[in-house]
Amino acid sequence: MDVKRGISGYLIASLLLHLIIGIILFVGLDFSKPKRPESKGQIVNAVMLDENFLNEQAKQIQQQKSQPKPQKVEKEKDKEDTDIAKRELAQQQERLRIAETKRKEAEEATRKAEAEKQKKVAEQKQAEEKAQKAEEARKLEEQKAKKVEAERKAAEEESKALALKKKKEQEKKEAEEKQAKADAAKKAEAEKKAKQEAEKKAKAEADKKAKAEAEKKAKAEADKKAKEAKEEAAKKAKADAEKKAKAEADKQAKIAAERKRKAAEEAKLQKEMEDMMQQQLAAEANARSQAASAAAQGEVDKYAALIKATVERYMILDPTMRGKTCTIGVRLASTGFVISVDNGQGDPAVCRSGKAAVLKANQLPVPKDPAAFEMLKEFNLKLEPSI
């Protein structure tokens, strides 16, 4: 009898567990599969019990109950299991009721949100239709106003055109009358002028004849004097040419002698300059250790003097340059080659001679110190020929 009771308790517990699982599965299924709403709603997270877990728990309970126990303890245990199963069933039912309530509330909220959305869409559509009708009415009124304005302008243009036509006809008539009067006056003036021209022409013919006679006489006299003057000018030109040729020959001889003298001086100066450069380079090496900036400035001054001396050696001087000066701008490469030279400012003759001398020298002495060269690569050279 007790064994049967124990089996009955196990069966009841098993049936209760399977019933709970079936209810949970049934409630969790969604047969209608409604379309997911676009609007926001409350999401209910339903928890589903694992059937395998429940079966495993039931088996463990059955195994525990299958062990031999005292009859009284077993009865109390069956009663306790039944009470626990009932309480669990009641709790599950309550949770299912709460979940169902929340699901229905979520569905209601979704339905209300969808309805509100549809209402807003309908209201927006009505507003757009109303605005469109208003815009169409405004455009129609605008077209009517444009048509009226166009008709008014057309009438105004027609009136202006008619007035302009009448004005032109009147002006044409007045112009024709004025032209007729002018033609008559012009004809009278022409006749008067023709008479005056005839009288003037007759007088001019007489004057022309007298003038021709006088010019003929004067021309003969002028030809005679021109012949005499031409002969005198030829004599003077010949004498001037001979004098000029002699002066040019003397000048070229002086220039050749000056060039020869300068070539000899240049060779001498070149040697002196090289010796001086060696001495100054040695002095520069000693001075650089004491003050770099002072040394660089000294180099600049030294090579500026050397450059000036070199350019002046190549200059072709003329007595007219005495006491005159010229300042020319020069740009040099790091090797001393002349990159460019301007036309200078000062006496034109001195500037021309100085520029020609720089170009002829082609390569000028420059310092090896980069700092000194940087100060000397572009400079203004003042030339003062000493004659």
Automatic annotation (TrEMBL):
Ranges that cross the membrane: 7-29
Specify where the region named Disordered lies, as residue ranges.
60-275
Q: Which keywords does this chain's UniProt record carry?
A: Membrane, Transmembrane, Transmembrane helix
Q: Which GO terms describe its biological process?
A: bacteriocin transport
Domain of life where this protein originates:
Bacteria
Gene3D superfamilies reported for this sequence: 3.30.1150.10
Q: Which NCBIfam families match?
A: tolA_full
This protein is called Protein TolA
Q: Which organism is it from?
A: Aeromonas hydrophila subsp. hydrophila (strain ATCC 7966 / DSM 30187 / BCRC 13018 / CCUG 14551 / JCM 1027 / KCTC 2358 / NCIMB 9240 / NCTC 8049)
